[in-house]
Design goal:
Layout lengths: L2 E6 L3 H17 L3 E6 L47 H9 L11 H9 L8 H17 L5 E6 L3 E5 L4 E5 L4 E4 L1 E4 L10 H13 L2 E3 L17 E5 L3 H10 L6 E4 L5 E4 L6 E5 L27 H10 L4 H24 L8 H10 L5 H10 L9 H5 L10 H20 L5 H20 L6 H19 L4 H12 L3 E5 L3 E5 L2 E5 L8 E3 L1 E4 L13 H8 L5 E8 L13 E4 L2 E11 L7 E3 L5 E7 L20 H17 L12
Parallel strand pairs: 1-2, 1-7, 2-3, 7-22, 8-17, 9-12, 9-17, 12-13
Antiparallel strand pairs: 4-5, 5-6, 10-11, 14-15, 15-16, 18-20, 19-20, 21-22
Helix pairs in contact: 1-4, 1-17, 7-13, 8-13, 12-15, 13-14
Pfam families: NAD_binding_9
Protein name: FAD-NAD(P)-binding protein
InterPro entries: FAD/NAD-bd_sf, HpyO/CreE_NAD-binding, L-asp_N-monooxygenase_NS-form
Length: 654
């Protein structure tokens, strides 16, 4: 009798798990059925489906996107290499892949013109992801069969084996269940529900947090004043769809500066966020020097030390090493790639840098002594809160400040005079991997897990997951033309009679009122508010738990003290409960943790909806990608369970 695995979610994450299952299956099982369940196209899934605007791009260059393991990946399963997005495109147009033809129409034209530094459309990426899945299916070992189901999983009927219930009827046997659905939508928070009710009562437009491509933006009239909250990638999609998507066009002056030519169908968008600036542009150059040697100050030994110690505060205890690691990579590239902008030699700087803490007066003096231009010095406070000292008297003066900021950011990320920024990016990736290891242990305090990890994820995304440079050039053109108006940092939006009122910390007694409000962001994770029927059902039965962290507050004598947040009395101490909204899984193998705190032997989850925070499902080649190591650890835990042997720990550390 074959064993059966059901993977709920057939996008890049589900495909990655399937690939790792197939790679290791011969080592564990003789007969295996794998069911891939997704209402969206297998391989591409919801986010990367072909059926979306051709104007929407990826935010990574074609050479920096792969779904295949390579020799850099340290994992227990076999390495099965394959082409990156760019290598696949070259092989297709050169006729080197059997059965792979250049697609018809605009996608084919794009594939023929694709270069390694091109930001491909999501529609082209959907073709690459389809190829990846078809390649996995074509190379399955003989004991594995894959069945694809273009529908939604809506529930689980427990038994031996369990049965996954499908929308519209039908069930699938599931000796093992893997939830790989990616970001999950959720019912509105109380605050979001109140804004929606206000809009209904007064005939306004309110767009809640959601995938921008799924929003009914055609409802926004031409000429409408719009307030948008959020300046990350969801806002970039909003900008593209409201302007180019309505027939507007950008014209290059010849020096890279763009002008916007309106179609007459545009709204006017007033936008702000917590940080008040767009995510940093993607770097569009290569390192000039050798790759910085990492990890240097935050590696497995330091993480092991934090685990032994426990009660670790990320901002207080770990951030100084994270910052020092990124600084090491940044200055390594500055010295190697731009020796004319430093005094002295790297070996002297590195020796003294290694002895100092970040960011002490002695470290500041060291950097000033070797790096004469303040613009070449790494300043995390400026990066994290660039508008901290800004309180403009009017909108016009704030626009000039923000445009100057975006222009500087563009220069730093597309001009190879600033390749030290790419060095910092490499350091960020190293720090991210190590923090992910630490986050999977009990070492961090509950408050730090709930709040500091969220801060770090946001900070990392703002630096490492920003838009292509051309998108910021378009943003500048829209700003100069008056179609995008910056509101700055600390944005607050409140319902008022006849509309919504926006204020910010960057404006002195200035407010904007509009009849349309767009939450240009994804919904916050929440198991308890999830509108996914499978997840909600598992949670209701106690088979899946929402991560809630418990922080006890006592003074030095052990006496209970008042908690900073809402607290309840418990065992003589004030207690704060921090709810992250994430699915609890065991870090070593991604097994679900049930309501009693027990790891489930047969049910797993992986992706951004879990408390193991991973980067994207695809990544840069030759970077020992954490996502690939995670997929491998989960796959081998699944196969181990099916083979009825003791689970292996997996290899997330490397």
């Amino acid at each position: 009798m074959p064993r059966s695995v059901v993977i709920v979610g057939g996008g890049p994450r589900g495909t990655g798990v399937l690939e790792r299952l197939a790679a290791s299956a011969p080592e564990f099982v003789d007969d295996l059925d794998v069911h891939l369940v997704d209402p969206y196209p297998d391989g591409a899934g919801r986010i990367w489906r072909e059926d979306q605007s051709a104007l929407l791009w990826m935010n990574s260059m074609a050479a920096d996107v792969t779904m295949f393991t390579d020799s850099s990946v340290v994992c227990d399963g076999p390495i099965v290499p394959g082409p990156s997005l760019y290598e696949w495109a070259v092989a297709v147009r050169d006729g080197e892949l059997d059965g792979e033809d250049v697609p018809d129409g605009p996608v084919g034209d794009e594939l023929r013109a694709l270069g390694p530094a091109t930001f491909a459309t999501r529609r082209l990426q959907s073709h690459y992801l389809d190829f990846v899945l078809r390649r996995v299916l074509a190379t399955l070992p003989p004991q594995v069969r894959v069945h694809r189901h273009r529908t939604r999983a809506v529930g689980l009927r427990r038994g031996t084996p369990d049965r996954v219930q499908l929308e519209g009827g039908g069930e699938l046997p599931a000796d093992v269940l893997v939830l790989a659905s990616g970001h999950l939508d959720a019912a509105p928070t109380d605050a979001e529900a109140a804004l929606a009710a206000h809009a209904r009562e007064q005939g306004l437009l309110y767009f809640p947090p959601e995938q921008t491509t799924d929003s009914e933006l055609d409802r926004i009239p031409a000429g409408e004043t719009v307030i948008a909250r959020g300046m990350g990638l969801a806002f970039v999609d909003l900008m593209v769809l409201l302007f180019e998507g309505r027939g507007g066009a950008f014209r290059d002056r010849g020096d890279g500066t763009l002008d916007y030519e309106p179609s007459g169908r545009e709204p006017v968008v007033h936008v702000g966020s917590g940080r008040g600036v767009p995510y940093h542009a993607k770097t569009e150059y290569a390192l000039k020097g050798p790759r910085p040697p990492l990890p240097r100050f935050l590696g497995p030994d330091e993480i092991a030390g934090f685990v032994r110690r426990g009660d670790v505060d990320l901002r207080r205890d770990v951030w100084p090493l994270m910052a020092k690691e990124v600084g090491w990579a940044y200055y390594h590239e500055l010295f190697a790639g731009h020796p004319d902008r430093v005094r002295g030699v790297w070996d002297d700087f590195a020796l003294r840098y290694a002895e100092l803490d970040w960011y002490t007066p002695a470290m500041y003096e060291l950097v000033v002594g070797f790096v004469p231009d303040p613009g070449d010095r790494l300043d995390f406070e400026r990066i994290d809160r660039p508008l901290e000292d800004v309180c403009a008297p009017d909108l016009a003066s704030l626009q000039e400040r923000l445009r100057s900021y975006v222009l500087d950011d563009l220069a730093r990320h597309v001009d190879d005079r600033y390749t030290a920024e790419l060095g910092a990016f490499v350091g960020l990736l190293s720090a991210f991997a190590q923090v992910a290891e630490l986050a999977g242990t009990p070492a961090l305090t509950p408050r730090s897990r709930a709040q500091d990890l969220a801060w770090w994820q946001n900070f990392f995304s703002s630096l490492a997951s920003g838009p292509p440079g051309p998108r910021l050039r378009q943003l500048l053109a829209l700003s100069r033309a008056g179609y995008v108006v910056f509101l700055g940092a600390g944005l607050q939006v409140a319902p008022v009679e006849g509309g919504f009122r926006a204020t910010s910390a960057s404006l002195d007694h200035v407010a904007v009122t509009a009849r349309t409000f767009v939450e240009a962001r994804l919904s916050s994770p929440s198991v308890s508010r999830s509108d996914d029927p499978m997840l909600a059902g598992l949670h209701a039965e106690g088979l899946l738990d929402e991560e809630t962290l418990r922080e006890e507050h006592t003074d030095d004598s052990g006496t209970a003290v008042h908690a900073a947040d809402a607290a309840v009395a418990h065992s003589g101490a004030a207690v704060t409960l921090h709810n992250t909204g994430l699915v609890r899984v065991r870090t070593s193998d991604f097994r679900l943790i049930d309501a009693e705190g027990r790891p489930d032997p047969c049910r797993f989850a992986i992706g951004p909806h879990t408390n193991v925070r991973l980067p994207g499902a695809f990544t840069r080649p030759n970077t020992n990608a954490l996502s690939f190591r995670a997929n491998d650890a989960l796959a081998r835990a699944v196969l181990t369970q099916l083979a009825d042997v003791e689970p292996a720990a997996g290899r997330l550390s490397a």
